[in-house]
Write a structure and sequence with these properties.
By secondary structure, this protein is of the alpha/beta class. The chain is about 35% helix and about 20% strand.
Protein backbone atom coordinates (compact mmCIF):
# COMPACT_ATOMS: atom_id res chain seq x y z
CA UNK A 1 0.00 0.00 0.00
CA UNK A 2 1.15 3.51 -0.75
CA UNK A 3 2.84 5.78 1.77
CA UNK A 4 1.09 9.04 2.67
CA UNK A 5 2.04 12.02 4.77
CA UNK A 6 0.17 12.86 8.00
CA UNK A 7 -1.24 15.93 6.21
CA UNK A 8 -2.68 13.80 3.41
CA UNK A 9 -4.25 11.40 5.90
CA UNK A 10 -5.75 14.27 7.89
CA UNK A 11 -7.23 15.84 4.76
CA UNK A 12 -8.81 12.50 3.82
CA UNK A 13 -10.11 12.04 7.37
CA UNK A 14 -11.83 15.43 7.26
CA UNK A 15 -13.46 14.66 3.93
CA UNK A 16 -14.79 11.32 5.14
CA UNK A 17 -15.97 12.90 8.40
CA UNK A 18 -18.00 15.44 6.40
CA UNK A 19 -21.31 14.96 4.60
CA UNK A 20 -21.91 11.47 3.27
CA UNK A 21 -25.48 10.58 2.47
CA UNK A 22 -27.35 7.74 0.88
CA UNK A 23 -28.38 9.06 -2.51
CA UNK A 24 -29.59 6.27 -4.74
CA UNK A 25 -30.45 2.59 -4.78
CA UNK A 26 -30.51 0.77 -8.11
CA UNK A 27 -31.81 -2.74 -8.63
CA UNK A 28 -31.74 -2.23 -12.41
CA UNK A 29 -29.04 -0.82 -14.70
CA UNK A 30 -31.62 1.60 -16.15
CA UNK A 31 -31.96 3.22 -12.71
CA UNK A 32 -28.33 4.26 -12.21
CA UNK A 33 -27.74 7.88 -11.16
CA UNK A 34 -26.10 10.26 -13.66
CA UNK A 35 -22.29 9.78 -13.70
CA UNK A 36 -21.66 13.20 -12.12
CA UNK A 37 -18.83 12.17 -9.81
CA UNK A 38 -16.00 9.68 -9.77
CA UNK A 39 -17.05 6.38 -8.20
CA UNK A 40 -15.39 3.70 -6.13
CA UNK A 41 -17.24 0.40 -5.86
CA UNK A 42 -17.04 -2.01 -2.92
CA UNK A 43 -17.36 -5.60 -4.13
CA UNK A 44 -17.05 -8.91 -2.35
CA UNK A 45 -18.63 -12.18 -1.40
CA UNK A 46 -21.77 -12.11 0.70
CA UNK A 47 -21.10 -11.16 4.33
CA UNK A 48 -17.45 -10.20 3.74
CA UNK A 49 -18.00 -6.84 5.45
CA UNK A 50 -18.70 -4.32 2.67
CA UNK A 51 -21.32 -2.35 4.56
CA UNK A 52 -19.24 -2.41 7.75
CA UNK A 53 -16.24 -1.04 5.84
CA UNK A 54 -18.29 1.82 4.34
CA UNK A 55 -19.53 2.67 7.84
CA UNK A 56 -16.02 2.53 9.32
CA UNK A 57 -14.51 4.70 6.59
CA UNK A 58 -17.10 7.39 7.19
CA UNK A 59 -17.12 7.10 10.97
CA UNK A 60 -20.79 6.18 11.06
CA UNK A 61 -22.60 3.16 12.37
CA UNK A 62 -25.73 3.05 10.24
CA UNK A 63 -24.87 4.69 6.90
CA UNK A 64 -24.78 1.32 5.15
CA UNK A 65 -27.00 -1.43 6.54
CA UNK A 66 -25.18 -4.46 7.88
CA UNK A 67 -26.51 -7.91 8.56
CA UNK A 68 -25.32 -11.36 9.56
CA UNK A 69 -27.57 -12.71 6.81
CA UNK A 70 -25.62 -13.24 3.56
CA UNK A 71 -27.09 -11.42 0.59
CA UNK A 72 -28.94 -8.66 2.41
CA UNK A 73 -27.69 -5.93 0.06
CA UNK A 74 -29.75 -6.62 -3.06
CA UNK A 75 -29.06 -3.46 -5.06
CA UNK A 76 -26.33 -0.97 -5.89
CA UNK A 77 -26.38 1.60 -3.09
CA UNK A 78 -24.79 4.97 -3.91
CA UNK A 79 -23.48 7.23 -1.14
CA UNK A 80 -22.52 10.82 -2.00
CA UNK A 81 -19.29 11.77 -0.22
CA UNK A 82 -19.38 15.55 0.00
CA UNK A 83 -20.07 16.04 -3.70
CA UNK A 84 -16.63 14.60 -4.47
CA UNK A 85 -17.10 10.87 -4.81
CA UNK A 86 -19.74 8.17 -4.97
CA UNK A 87 -19.13 5.19 -2.70
CA UNK A 88 -21.02 2.26 -4.21
CA UNK A 89 -22.01 -0.64 -1.94
CA UNK A 90 -22.62 -3.59 -4.24
CA UNK A 91 -24.66 -6.76 -3.77
CA UNK A 92 -22.63 -9.61 -2.39
CA UNK A 93 -21.78 -12.39 -4.80
CA UNK A 94 -21.12 -16.03 -4.22
CA UNK A 95 -23.09 -17.80 -1.52
CA UNK A 96 -26.42 -16.35 -0.48
CA UNK A 97 -29.60 -17.96 0.86
CA UNK A 98 -31.65 -17.00 -2.18
CA UNK A 99 -32.84 -18.73 -5.32
CA UNK A 100 -30.54 -19.39 -8.25
CA UNK A 101 -32.62 -16.98 -10.34
CA UNK A 102 -32.14 -14.14 -7.86
CA UNK A 103 -28.39 -14.84 -7.63
CA UNK A 104 -28.13 -14.71 -11.42
CA UNK A 105 -29.98 -11.38 -11.45
CA UNK A 106 -27.57 -9.97 -8.86
CA UNK A 107 -24.56 -11.25 -10.80
CA UNK A 108 -25.85 -9.66 -14.01
CA UNK A 109 -26.38 -6.33 -12.25
CA UNK A 110 -22.90 -6.39 -10.71
CA UNK A 111 -21.00 -7.42 -13.81
CA UNK A 112 -22.85 -5.16 -16.27
CA UNK A 113 -22.36 -2.20 -13.94
CA UNK A 114 -18.64 -2.85 -13.65
CA UNK A 115 -18.30 -3.30 -17.38
CA UNK A 116 -20.12 -0.17 -18.47
CA UNK A 117 -19.84 2.62 -15.88
CA UNK A 118 -17.69 5.42 -17.41
CA UNK A 119 -16.89 7.26 -14.15
CA UNK A 120 -15.83 4.16 -12.17
CA UNK A 121 -12.29 4.86 -11.00
CA UNK A 122 -11.59 1.70 -9.05
CA UNK A 123 -13.15 -1.39 -7.51
CA UNK A 124 -12.22 -2.55 -4.04
CA UNK A 125 -12.55 -6.33 -3.84
CA UNK A 126 -13.02 -7.20 -0.19
CA UNK A 127 -11.61 -10.52 0.97
CA UNK A 128 -12.08 -12.04 4.42
CA UNK A 129 -8.55 -12.28 5.85
CA UNK A 130 -9.33 -15.72 7.30
CA UNK A 131 -10.63 -17.28 4.10
CA UNK A 132 -8.68 -15.79 1.17
CA UNK A 133 -9.63 -15.70 -2.50
CA UNK A 134 -12.47 -17.93 -3.66
CA UNK A 135 -13.49 -18.98 -7.16
CA UNK A 136 -16.09 -16.21 -7.38
CA UNK A 137 -13.45 -13.60 -6.47
CA UNK A 138 -11.16 -14.85 -9.24
CA UNK A 139 -14.11 -14.72 -11.65
CA UNK A 140 -14.67 -11.05 -10.82
CA UNK A 141 -10.95 -10.31 -11.17
CA UNK A 142 -10.90 -11.92 -14.61
CA UNK A 143 -13.87 -9.82 -15.68
CA UNK A 144 -12.23 -6.62 -14.47
CA UNK A 145 -9.00 -7.55 -16.27
CA UNK A 146 -10.95 -7.94 -19.53
CA UNK A 147 -12.81 -4.66 -18.97
CA UNK A 148 -9.55 -2.86 -18.03
CA UNK A 149 -11.08 -1.60 -14.78
CA UNK A 150 -8.42 -1.26 -12.08
CA UNK A 151 -9.06 -2.93 -8.75
CA UNK A 152 -7.49 -3.40 -5.35
CA UNK A 153 -7.70 -6.22 -2.85
CA UNK A 154 -8.78 -5.17 0.64
CA UNK A 155 -8.46 -7.72 3.43
CA UNK A 156 -11.27 -7.33 5.96
CA UNK A 157 -11.73 -8.58 9.54
CA UNK A 158 -7.96 -8.57 10.11
CA UNK A 159 -8.50 -8.32 13.86
CA UNK A 160 -9.71 -11.93 13.69
CA UNK A 161 -6.47 -13.24 12.14
CA UNK A 162 -3.04 -13.55 13.76
CA UNK A 163 -0.04 -11.66 12.38
CA UNK A 164 1.36 -14.91 11.00
CA UNK A 165 -1.93 -15.75 9.31
CA UNK A 166 -2.11 -12.26 7.80
CA UNK A 167 1.41 -12.46 6.39
CA UNK A 168 0.77 -15.87 4.87
CA UNK A 169 -2.48 -14.65 3.29
CA UNK A 170 -0.84 -11.51 1.89
CA UNK A 171 1.97 -13.57 0.35
CA UNK A 172 -0.46 -16.05 -1.17
CA UNK A 173 -2.71 -13.37 -2.71
CA UNK A 174 0.23 -11.26 -3.93
CA UNK A 175 1.48 -14.23 -5.95
CA UNK A 176 -1.92 -14.45 -7.63
CA UNK A 177 -2.17 -10.70 -8.34
CA UNK A 178 0.89 -10.70 -10.59
CA UNK A 179 -1.14 -12.74 -13.09
CA UNK A 180 -3.91 -10.11 -13.25
CA UNK A 181 -3.03 -7.01 -15.30
CA UNK A 182 -5.72 -4.70 -13.87
CA UNK A 183 -4.90 -5.49 -10.23
CA UNK A 184 -3.06 -3.03 -8.01
CA UNK A 185 0.00 -4.94 -6.76
CA UNK A 186 -0.29 -4.28 -3.01
CA UNK A 187 -3.01 -5.26 -0.56
CA UNK A 188 -4.85 -3.12 1.99
CA UNK A 189 -5.21 -4.43 5.55
CA UNK A 190 -8.36 -3.33 7.39
CA UNK A 191 -10.54 -3.98 10.39
CA UNK A 192 -13.90 -2.28 10.74
CA UNK A 193 -13.93 -3.29 14.40
CA UNK A 194 -10.62 -1.69 15.42
CA UNK A 195 -10.27 0.93 12.68
CA UNK A 196 -6.97 -0.50 11.50
CA UNK A 197 -6.02 0.62 7.99
CA UNK A 198 -8.88 3.12 7.63
CA UNK A 199 -6.63 6.21 7.50
CA UNK A 200 -4.57 4.77 4.64
CA UNK A 201 -7.60 3.48 2.70
CA UNK A 202 -9.39 6.84 3.03
CA UNK A 203 -6.33 8.57 1.61
CA UNK A 204 -6.05 6.09 -1.25
CA UNK A 205 -9.66 6.75 -2.23
CA UNK A 206 -9.31 10.54 -2.10
CA UNK A 207 -6.14 10.37 -4.20
CA UNK A 208 -7.68 8.24 -6.93
Amino acid sequence: MEEFSPEQKEQARRIFAGPCDFMWGSADLKQLPPPEFNEVAFAGRSNVGKSSLVNALTGRSTLAKTSNTPGRTQQLNFFNLGGLLYLVDMPGYGYAKVSKEVREQWDHLIFEYLRGRPNLRSVLILIDSRHGLKESDIHLMDLLDKAAVNYRIVLTKCDKASQKEREAMIQKITQILVKHPAAFPSIAITSSETGEGMDVLRTVLINL
